[in-house]
């Protein structure tokens, strides 16, 4: 009887790992076509939600039966406080009850927003529960990289279609529409398995590149193939360039630069010493170092030339704008700025509590800046009475300020900085895998901080998954170190 119970527990553990691996493998598909009970206007449809919906009940059943222990993390406390506050301000929003907009009511938008919040939290909590130690972490990263390989393969297929003519574009579009809400991008920008190029660039910057960059920086490898992570990093960076996503590219550059400054000082020092020591040696050493400098400059020049092929990229520096609003319009960011400005009007009206989760869109059109009404074509289309789209702030920080006020915004910041503290706490373990995890976590944390300036969805797994992985590892590490310290203290007595 005991043996059968033991086998049953192992089967449940094996099944939970399979579902977790399937979740990570499906992560790149952000807008899965076959989703029930959602409208055509809902574009954030992560395929990973299907295996996740099976995984969480399985874990809870095992926990209730006492067959497994769920990973408890301190970051769940500020997260819980944030969720309770969001419930409170959303209930308060029913008293405001804004005028319905294009068939959308406050109750409908708030329920929808709360559902998206809990979907995002489900990714976070499952990542915490499924990552307790090094073995779990290695399993997670391997399946993440497997999903990345699928994404890169589909991106390569799109590149062949766009730039070689070997594949018929209509045929590949038909293939993509079999699983995605979006056809191939008409401007020949790579979108991979995501809905649009910007989503793919954000996904690479916040979820996949952090682990690849950390592997190269710390010289830690997940598999026995030493070349795997550097090759995947190079291909991922090429795909980011091929998306022509300005926000994604700037996010990668900023997060990589800051992470390198924080964790790569020893490497910088040793590289600096090695580089200049060669100029005192043989002529071959000098030429080798000069060649390296030329190669690096060539890579940057090539990337700049590649990006400048797109007109909307050249507008970043080819503009005669005299004001900030004119510059935003010139670089095709006028609509985003206008939506954020309109949402901030709701914050100004209710600065402490906001207007309730999901309700900022009711205040955007009536508070759009004057310059946006005459100079931004997208705004003109949105103002058309026949248009049925509900506006969004396009900036998560602005959305939180407008919908949850200062209190909710600071609770969100407290949650984020608690996550950062957990990531840095892993460095105390002084183990190669823990340092690798911490470097990847800090890269992802920085990338998410930048990424949230360009998106406002709480459903997106990008902003939850890596944070949950690192929080789970840090929680178990803290528990283990505390227990070890207690044992040592007892022995000393």
Query: Which residues sit in consecutive blocks of at least 5 with pLDDT less than 50?
Result: 482-493
Instruction: Give the C-alpha Rg.
Output: 24 Å
Largest sheet: none
Mean pLDDT: 85
How many distinct helices? Answer: 19
Give the strand tally: 0
Give the SSE string: HHHHHHHHHHHHHHHHHHH
The helix/strand class is mainly alpha
The coarse silhouette is: globular
Q: In angstroms, what separates the terminal alpha carbons?
A: 42 Å
Classify the beta-strand content into a percent band: under 5%
Roughly what percent helix?
Answer: 55-70%
Summarize the structure.
With 493 residues, this protein is mostly helical. The protein has helices at 2-25, 49-64, 76-96, 106-129, 134-163, 169-177, 197-218, 228-243, 246-263, 265-277, 283-307, 311-314, 324-330, 334-349, 370-375, 377-382, 396-425, 432-451, 465-492.
Keywords:
disordered C terminus, single chain, 68% helix, 493 residues, mainly alpha, 19 helices
How does this structure look, described?
- The protein has 493 residues and is an all-alpha fold.
- It has a domain at 75-116 and 144-265 and 342-478.
- The chain contains 19 helices and no strands.
- The chain has helices at residues 2-25, 49-64, 76-96, 106-129, 134-163, 169-177, 197-218, 228-243, 246-263, 265-277, 283-307, 311-314, 324-330, 334-349, 370-375, 377-382, 396-425, 432-451, 465-492.
- The chain is globular and about 75 Å long.
């Amino acid at each position: 009887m005991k043996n059968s119970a033991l086998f049953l527990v192992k089967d449940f553990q094996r099944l939970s790992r399979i579902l977790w691996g399937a979740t990570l493998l499906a992560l790149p598909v952000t807008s899965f076509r076959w989703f029930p009970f959602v409208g055509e206007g809902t574009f954030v449809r992560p395929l990973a939600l299907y295996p996740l919906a099976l995984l969480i009940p399985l874990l809870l059943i095992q926990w209730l039966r006492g067959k497994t222990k769920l990973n408890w993390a301190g970051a769940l406390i500020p997260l819980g406080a944030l969720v309770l506050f969001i419930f409170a301000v959303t209930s308060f929003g029913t008293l405001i009850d804004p005028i319905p907009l294009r068939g959308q009511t406050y109750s409908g938008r708030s329920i929808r927003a709360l559902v998206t919040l809990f979907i995002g939290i489900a990714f976070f909590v499952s990542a915490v529960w499924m990552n307790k130690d090094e073995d779990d972490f290695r399993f997670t990263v391997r399946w993440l990289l497997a999903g990345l390989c699928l994404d890169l393969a589909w991106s390569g297929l799109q590149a062949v279609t766009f730039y070689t003519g070997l594949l018929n574009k209509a045929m590949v579009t038909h293939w993509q529409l079999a699983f995605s809400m979006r056809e191939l991008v008409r401007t020949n920008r790579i979108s991979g398995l995501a809905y649009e190029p910007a989503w793919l660039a954000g996904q690479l910057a916040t979820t996949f590149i952090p682990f690849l960059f950390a592997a190269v920086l710390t010289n830690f490898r997940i598999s026995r193939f030493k070349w795997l992570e550097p090759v995947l990093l190079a291909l991922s960076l090429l795909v980011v360039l091929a998306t022509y996503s300005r926000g994604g590219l700037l996010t990668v550059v900023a997060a990589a630069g800051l992470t390198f400054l924080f964790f790569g000082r020893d490497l910088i020092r040793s590289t600096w010493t090695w580089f200049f020591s060669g100029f005192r040696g043989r002529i071959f050493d000098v030429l080798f170092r000069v060649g390296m400098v030329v190669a690096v400059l060539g890579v940057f020049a090539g990337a700049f030339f590649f990006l400048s092929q797109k007109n909307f990229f050249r507008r970043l520096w080819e503009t005669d704008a005299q004001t900030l609003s004119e510059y935003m319009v010139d670089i095709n960011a006028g609509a985003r700025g206008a939506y954020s400005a309109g949402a901030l009007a709701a914050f100004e009206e209710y600065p402490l509590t906001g207007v309730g989760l999901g309700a900022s869109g009711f205040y955007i059109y009536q508070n759009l800046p004057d310059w946006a009404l005459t100079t931004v074509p997208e705004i003109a289309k949105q103002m058309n009475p026949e248009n049925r789209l509900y506006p969004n702030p396009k900036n998560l920080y602005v959305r939180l300020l407008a919908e949850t006020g200062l209190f909710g915004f600071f609770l969100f910041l407290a949650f984020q900085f608690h996550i950062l503290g957990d990531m840095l706490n892993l460095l105390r373990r002084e183990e190669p895998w823990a340092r690798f995890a911490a470097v990847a976590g800090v890269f992802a944390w920085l990338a998410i901080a930048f990424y949230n300036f360009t998106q406002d969805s709480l459903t997106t797994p990008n902003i939850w998954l890596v944070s949950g992985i690192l929080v789970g590892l840090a929680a178990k590490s803290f528990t283990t170190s505390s227990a070890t310290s207690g044992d040592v203290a007892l022995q000393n007595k």
